[in-house]
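Postdoc handover notes: sequence design on the structure in folder B. Input C-alpha cells:
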C-alpha cells in the first residue's frame, strides 16, 4: 500500500456529524439518529458536552497529538458503530478532511452543519464565494499576510481567544492599521456575540476562544504593495543582496508557472526570493530551498515568515541534503539560481524532476551560460537572455544604467527527451 493510499476500513460507515454552537437543538433528525445509534462518539470535550445524557454511546475525547493517534484509535474499535463530532462543516478545515485522507470517503457518512464562514458571511452580508478564508488553527499568524490587500475582505479562523488581538497587531505592523475587524463569537449559539473595532486602536480584551474574525482591509497608501503576483520590491527581502532582482524574479516565476498545490525546489536559495514568491502565488503551494551558507538559511527563514509563507522548508546544499528531505522527492518545478557549474547539480535536478515538470535556470557568467547551452542542445526547451536597464541620476540628468545580463533556460521534462547529461553524451 502506498503512503498516500487510504486505509481500508472494514467496519460500518463512520458518521461524521457537524455540530454548531447551538448544539443538539440545531441538529436535524439524520444527525441526531447517527449520534444516537453510535456505540462510541469521538470529539473534543466542548463538542461532547453538547450531546445530551440520554444518548447511550460512550464518549471519547480526542488524544493529543491527534493525527498520529488516529490509525490505532480506529483499529481498536474496528467493527463498532462510530460517530465523530466536528465543528460546523467537517469538510471546512475540519476533521472530515483528515478522515477522508486516512480512510477514504467510502468509509464515511458525512452530515455537515453550516460552517463558521457561512454563518459569518450571513451576519455581515458578505458573499461566501468571494471571501477568502485563512485558518490559523495549527498555523502561524503570518499566514494571513499574502491575503492582505486594499479593500480586500477576508475571514480568519482563530486559534483561540488571543488571535483577534494578535491579528490587530499584525495588521498595524504591516501597513493595514485602519482595517476594520469584526470578531464573531459562538456563532449560532445562545452566547453569540459580536465585537467591532479598528486594528490601530484595538483594545478589546480576550473573549471566547470559539471565534472567527472578519477583516475589511484598508492599506496605508505610503507602504509598498505586496500582492500575490510575483515581483515584490527588492527591499522587502533582508539579506546580503544575493537575490534575483524583482524584474527577473517576475519573469522567472512566470516561467516556472506555479499551480495550486505544487512543490518547488529552489537550488541556491540566496535570500529565498524565488521560493517565497512561488509560495505566495497560492496558499497551498510548497517549496524547499537549498542554500549552502547557514547565515543565508537563517535569513531565508526570516524572510519567509515576514512575507507570509513560514511553511517554506529550508535545507543545506542540495548534494548533501537531498536524501533527507522526503517532501522534496518529486518536485513539480525546479529553479536553479546557483551552482550551475558545480558537478552533478543539474543531473540531480533533472533526475528528481517529475515527468511534465518544469526546470528553469538562470546564468550570469559565460561559464554557466555554456552549461545551459549544452543542456538545451540535449533536452530542448527555450533559451532567452534578459537585459534590464534602470534609470539613475547622472549629475542633474537621468541615465539608463544596465544591470548584469541574465541568460535563462526553461524546459519541460518530457518522456521522449534524453535522460543523460550533456557531459555523458559528448
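Designed sequence:
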Amino acid at each position: 500500500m502506498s503512503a498516500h493510499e487510504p486505509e481500508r476500513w472494514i467496519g460500518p460507515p463512520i458518521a461524521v456529524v457537524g455540530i454548531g454552537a447551538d448544539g443538539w437543538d440545531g441538529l436535524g433528525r439524520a444527525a441526531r439518529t447517527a449520534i444516537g445509534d453510535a456505540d462510541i462518539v469521538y470529539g473534543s470535550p466542548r463538542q461532547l458536552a453538547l450531546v445530551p445524557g440520554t444518548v447511550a454511546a460512550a464518549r471519547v475525547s480526542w488524544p493529543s497529538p491527534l493525527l498520529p493517534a488516529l490509525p490505532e484509535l480506529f483499529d481498536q474499535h474496528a467493527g463498532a458503530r462510530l460517530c465523530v463530532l466536528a465543528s460546523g462543516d467537517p469538510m471546512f478545515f475540519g476533521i472530515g478532511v483528515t478522515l477522508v485522507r486516512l480512510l477514504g470517503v467510502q468509509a464515511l457518512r458525512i452530515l455537515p452543519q453550516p460552517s463558521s464562514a457561512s454563518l459569518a458571511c450571513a451576519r455581515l452580508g458578505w458573499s461566501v464565494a468571494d471571501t477568502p478564508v485563512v485558518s490559523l488553527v495549527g498555523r502561524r499568524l503570518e499566514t494571513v499576510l499574502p491575503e492582505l490587500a486594499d479593500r480586500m475582505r477576508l475571514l480568519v479562523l482563530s486559534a483561540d481567544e488571543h488571535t483577534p488581538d494578535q491579528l490587530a497587531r499584525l495588521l498595524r505592523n504591516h501597513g493595514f492599521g485602519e482595517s476594520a475587524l469584526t470578531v464573531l463569537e459562538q456563532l449560532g449559539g445562545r452566547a453569540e456575540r459580536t465585537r467591532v473595532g479598528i486594528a490601530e486602536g484595538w483594545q478589546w480584551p480576550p473573549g471566547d476562544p470559539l471565534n472567527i474574525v472578519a477583516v475589511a482591509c484598508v492599506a496605508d497608501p505610503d507602504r509598498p504593495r505586496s500582492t500575490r503576483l510575483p515581483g515584490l520590491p527588492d527591499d522587502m527581502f533582508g539579506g546580503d543582496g544575493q537575490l534575483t532582482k524583482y524584474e527577473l524574479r517576475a519573469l522567472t516565476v512566470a516561467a516556472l508557472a506555479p499551480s495550486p498545490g505544487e512543490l518547488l525546489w529552489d537550488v541556491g536559495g540566496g535570500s529565498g526570493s524565488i521560493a517565497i514568491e512561488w509560495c505566495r502565488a497560492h496558499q497551498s503551494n510548497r517549496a524547499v530551498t537549498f542554500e549552502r551558507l547557514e547565515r543565508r538559511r537563517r535569513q531565508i527563514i526570516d524572510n519567509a515568515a515576514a512575507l507570509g509563507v513560514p511553511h517554506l522548508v529550508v535545507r543545506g546544499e542540495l548534494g548533501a541534503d537531498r536524501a533527507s528531505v522526503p517532501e522534496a522527492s518529486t518536485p513539480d518545478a525546479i529553479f536553479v539560481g546557483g551552482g550551475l557549474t558545480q558537478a552533478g547539480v543539474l543531473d540531480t535536478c533533472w533526475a528528481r524532476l517529475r515527468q511534465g515538470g518544469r526546470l528553469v535556470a538562470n546564468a550570469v557568467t559565460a561559464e554557466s551560460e555554456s552549461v545551459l547551452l549544452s543542456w538545451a542542445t540535449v533536452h530542448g526547451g527555450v533559451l532567452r537572455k534578459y537585459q534590464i536597464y534602470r534609470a539613475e541620476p547622472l549629475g542633474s540628468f537621468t541615465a539608463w544604467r544596465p544591470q548584469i545580463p541574465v541568460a535563462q533556460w526553461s524546459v519541460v521534462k518530457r518522456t521522449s527527451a534524453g535522460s543523460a547529461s550533456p557531459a555523458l553524451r559528448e
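Context for whoever picks this up: The chain is about 25% helix and 25% strand. Don't rerun without checking with the PI first.
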